[in-house]
Amino acid sequence: MKKSFRTYIILLYLLLAASCAEAQQAYVSLENGDLVVIDVEQCTSRRIGKTSVPMYDIAIGPGGVMYGVGQDNKLYKINLGDASTTLIGSLVPEPGDDFNSLVFSASGILYAATNRSTILYKIDTTNAKQTPLGNIGFRAAGDLTFLNGVLYMAAQNNFLIRVNVSNPEQSVPVGKMNAESAIFGVVTIGTIDCKDGRPKMYALGGNFLYEVSPGDATTKRICSNLSLNATIYGAASSLEATAQLRANAGRDTLLNICENTQEIRLDPLIGPKESAGAWYGPNQTALSPNPIVDVSGLTRGTYRYYYTVGEDNCADTATVSLKVDRLRPEFPSDTTLCQGETLLISLRDSAASYRWQDGSTTPEYPIAKPGTYSVNITKSCGQTEASVEVNFENCQGCNVFMPDAFSPNNDGLNDLYGALSDCQFSAFTLSIYNRWGEVVFQSQDLNQSWDGRVDAQPVPPGIYVYRLNYQLLSNPALPVVRTGKIVLIR
Question: Where is the signal peptide (predicted)?
Answer without folding.
Answer: 1-23
